[in-house]
Write a structure and sequence with these properties.
This protein has 121 residues and is of the alpha+beta class. It contains 3 helices and 5 strands, in the order ββαααβββ. The chain has a 5-stranded antiparallel sheet, with no helix packed on it. Strand 4 (101-108) and strand 5 form a beta hairpin.
Amino acid sequence: ALLFHWDLLDRQVRIEGAATHTSDLESDEYWNSRPRENQLAAWASDQSHPVETRAELEERVRDAERRFKDQPVPRPPHWGGYRVSIHSIEFWQGKPNRLHDRVRYQHCPQLGGWVTRRLCP
């Protein structure tokens, strides 16, 4: 599931479905569309791992710049994407009286598409 919550707007969207890795070809295509600076940052960052200082992170970027100077930056082996095959999407709008609006769109291939249902809060 993916959840996008906007507290200040009192809204959220929940998406449910099966997640799969993107293929190497798709990952390469997306990687090659990204700015060089983003590619270097991907090599420099062990995403979500602790780093002692901002200076250390910036030094890692400089190391990547030196490593790939005058050449294309290859996609790191750990870098790729995910695709979610959507089964349902729910939109939620909060209301002060707690009678929130909830609408779910559910993919139903046997019915030829999507079924829309309003849900109780």
